[in-house]
């Protein structure tokens, strides 16, 4: 890293140099596959002894243009001020590490060629089926829905079916690179719709009353959330990710947190150490839930760095912006459901419960509108990012033709 000869110990100056160095590295990394393919074609067709100098000049000219383009987003900073040393590049690249810096469509975790989306869908279907079978087989009690609860389920199911029909029509405008992401969203809606269909059609479904809070728990709804918490969180994290580790860990934390919630009414019925087991599960569930708030802070810090270092139209920044908006939508969904559960649990200790579980009705409303907003946002934002990427590719083609 180049340091100023006038004041080498000044911390602010060092930070500016670090940012500028990151810009140059990002400019090199963000180059599109088309540029690389063009260089490879030139190298393959040009005679080594005749045009080597010309090829070298063209390649260097492209790199310099990319660097100047990227660095232009910062004021009062020259390109000669920031030339990162070879040893420091790993440090700067970590600022654009996987999870916040997909470089192009082919590098995305849910790229159609990877097959990850299909494995995620297969896992979700198997887990959903297994949990529902276990709920029907092992839940000792059932409960018929009251009229308000039955109406809430019917309205939710109607809206979800309409949303699926809309998605079937909208799929025609989804780009090929986003088809697998869209397919995951459809699976989320289908599984949620199946749960509501079971609750609507069956005369009585598995319910367990939590003896600690007095709250009746729909075990089918808990089984649905355990699976959808995983797939929804994974898809949101994968929007701008190039590796699976972080999406898997964050998605697993939310799924396990929900699974603890499923076990709470069962723990409340234990004959021995009922309060201890229930309390431990509750604490573990909340600790796992809070993982998404830690993840939010990390994503915000990385996004701030990228906003300060990259042009607004750069592919990594566009994808990171999409991922951040979707993360906020997901955070709202799980926080709203957790808040409703908490309020209902506390209210049940001081207010007598009636025949209708208004918490169940609230869950239906949140489950419906949150998924609708979430899926609409993910389709619109990804479509916007794809359109911007296509525009940039066309601009680069025109620039090469006129050059």
How would you describe this protein?
The protein is mainly alpha-helical. A hairpin with a 6-residue loop joins strand 2 and strand 3. It starts with 10 loop residues before the first helix and ends with a helix. The protein folds into 2 domains: 11-96, no CATH class; 105-394, Up-down Bundle (Rhopdopsin 7-helix transmembrane proteins), CATH 1.20.1070.10. The protein contains 13 helices and 3 strands. It is elongated. It has a 3-stranded antiparallel sheet. The chain has helices spanning 11-29, 33-45, 48-71, 89-93, 116-138, 147-170, 179-201, 219-238, 245-268, 274-289, 291-309, 315-347, 358-402, and strands at residues 142-143, 205-209, 216-218.
CATH class of the largest domain: Mainly Alpha
Largest sheet, in brief, is: 3 strands, antiparallel
User: Helical content, roughly?
Assistant: over 70%
What is the CA-based Rg, rounded?
26 Å
Q: Any low-confidence stretches, pLDDT <50, length ≥5?
A: 1-9, 23-35, 46-96
CATH fold topology of the largest domain: Rhopdopsin 7-helix transmembrane proteins
How much strand content do the residues show? Answer: under 5%
Class per helix and strand makeup: mainly alpha
Instruction: Tell me, rounded to a whole number, the average pLDDT.
Output: 75
Q: What's the shape? A: elongated
| CATH superfamily membership of the largest domain | Rhodopsin 7-helix transmembrane proteins
What's the short version?
The chain has helices at residues 11-29, 33-45, 48-71, 89-93, 116-138, 147-170, 179-201, 219-238, 245-268, 274-289, 291-309, 315-347, 358-402, and strands at 142-143, 205-209, 216-218. With 403 residues, it is mostly helical.
